[in-house]
Amino acid sequence: MPVIAIDGPTASGKGTIATRLAAELGWHVLDSGALYRLTALACLRRGIGAADVAAAAAAARGLDVRFGARIYLEGEDVTDAIRDEAVGDLASRVAALQPVRDALLARQRAFREPAGLVADGRDMGTVVFPDADLKVFLVASARARAERRYKQLIEKGFSANLDTLLRDLEARDARDAQRASAPLVAAPDALKLDSSDLTIDQTVAQVLAWWRARSA
Prior knowledge:
Belongs to the cytidylate kinase family. Type 1 subfamily. It is found in: Cytoplasm. It is an enzyme of class 2 (transferase). Residues 4-209 form the Cytidylate kinase domain. Pfam families: Cytidylate_kin. By secondary structure, the protein is α/β, with parallel strands linked by helices. The chain has one domain: P-loop containing nucleotide triphosphate hydrolases (Rossmann fold, 3-Layer(aba) Sandwich), CATH 3.40.50.300. It is built from 9 helices and 8 strands. The protein has helices at 14-25, 32-46, 53-61, 85-94, 98-109, 124-128, 142-155, 162-178, 200-215, and strands at 3-7, 28-31, 65-67, 71-73, 76-77, 117-121, 134-139, 191-194. The strands form 2 sheets. A 5-stranded parallel β-sheet has the order 2-6-1-7-8. Strand 4 and strand 5 (76-77) form a beta hairpin. Helix 3 (53-61) runs parallel beside helix 5. It is globular, with a radius of gyration of 16 Å.
C-alpha cells in the first residue's frame, strides 16, 4: 500500500497536514506522536520516569488504546490530555529510548492498510516506512511553531506562556536531533517544505502536487 511519510520537528504542523492529506486522498492516517504521548501519559500515571527504561518499554507494549475521532487510553478519552506540555516533554524523553521505539514499531507499521497511509512523526521516512512512496520533511521556524502551539493551547483552555513554549521547543529540537536512537533527520530522498509563511491550505496543496506528480 502507498505511504506518504511526513517528518519534522515539534509543532511543525505535521499532524494537521497529515490529517488533511488523508481526507483528500481517502487514506488512513498515523499520528505516531500520539503513540509516544500515550506512552508518556501512561508512564506519568504510573509514576514511571524516563530513567526507568524497562518500565517505560513495558508501558509502551501494553498500551490499551483506541483511535477514532477521539483517542482513548484504557477506555478513557485522553484526546486533550495527551496534548498537555508535561506529557509532551516526557514523550520526547521516552521517544529517545530504543526499547520504547522497538515496542511501538510493529504497532505503527500495522496502520499500513488499503487504500494508503499518510504517516507523520520524526522517523517515518527513515525508520518506520523507509520505502515510503513520498517523503516530506516539514519544517518551520521555532518562533512560528511556538506561536502555533500557543494558539492551540489557549483555544483548548490550557494556560501557556509563549517564551516558555519557545524555550521548550528549542530544547526538544536539540534532544530529538541529538538522540542516538532514530534522531530527527530528513531522509536523503525527502522533499523539504518550510511552512513558516504558508497557510495550512497552501502546505497541503504543495504536498498533494508532489504526490500527484510522483504517482503520475
